[in-house]
Write a structure and sequence with these properties.
By secondary structure, the protein is of the alpha/beta class. It is built from seven helices and 14 strands. Strands 1, 2, 3, 4, 6, 8, 10, 13 and 14 form a nine-stranded mixed β-sheet that branches. The chain has a three-stranded parallel β-sheet with strand order 5-7-9. It has a two-stranded antiparallel ribbon with strand order 11-12. α2 packs across α6 (183-205) and α4 (100-108) runs parallel beside α5 (123-129). The longest helix has 23 residues, at 183-205. The N and C termini lie far apart (73 Å).
């Protein structure tokens, strides 16, 4: 007998990173965070803010696949305050992965934001809800609710591997993921990046005519 694939697969509960470490990233620009990770970590540039201008929190992942949101419905039901739900659709742009009702429930549960490589719908209504949303765009088409899908397992969204417990930060430049295992390392580098950028910016404002790397290349 061939067993049917279960519609949803759930990962074991994942303990999030220490809140004190997470909070030290708050307010840092995505550009600085990327520089602190050596120049990478940003999702596909087409994933842009649809509602709000920033998002920040710890990832709760789900893989919906194309044209379905059963896994997202389950992820919202599993969510906790401060989570950023990240929904992978494989970049599907034929239908939205969510709309105002599910986003409203997520907001009621204290979710900090929503990120997807797919589309959303009910723009006027989700704008009124105010939950930060980053997506590829907007459509009126609605998804199915059949599965299969996963909740809490690693996914690929916007070309970047993301696991539940990773740090998610987004601003007008896009969304960045800091893997949980790299949070302390990135935080230490971030302080150096901030200091170096501040020092160079002061020189630029004072009339600097070329960046140090340009002068170094002529030596």
């Amino acid at each position: 007998m061939i067993e049917e694939t279960p519609p949803l697969v759930f990962a074991p509960a994942v303990e999030g990173p220490p809140l004190a470490l997470v909070e030290r990233f708050r307010g840092a620009s995505t550009s600085f965070i990327v520089d602190a990770m050596g120049g990478s970590g940003a999702l596909d540039w087409r994933i842009r803010p649809v509602v709000g201008a920033s998002v920040f929190g710890v990832a709760l992942t789900c893989d919906c696949g194309p044209n379905d949101n059963l896994a997202l419905i389950a992820a919202v039901a599993e969510s906790e305050p401060g989570d950023v739900i990240v929904a992978a659709t494989g970049g599907f742009c034929g239908a939205a992965v969510t709309g105002d009702l599910l986003i409203g429930v997520a907001r009621n549960r204290g979710v900090a934001g929503f990120v997807t490589d797919g589309l959303v719908r009910d723009l006027a209504e989700i704008e009124a809800l105010g939950l930060p949303i980053y997506a590829m765009g907007v459509t009126s088409n609605s998804p199915g609710k059949r599965g299969p899908g996963t909740v809490g397992l690693p996914i690929v969204c916007g070309g970047v591997s993301i696991a539940s417990g990773d740090l998610i930060a987004g601003d007008k430049d896009g969304v960045v993921v800091v893997p949980r295992a790299r949070i302390e390392e990135t935080l230490a580098n971030l302080e150096r990046v901030k200091a170096a950028e501040a020092a160079l910016l002061e020189k630029v404002r004072g009339g600097l005519l070329e960046l140090p790397v340009a002068a170094a290349r002529r030596r």
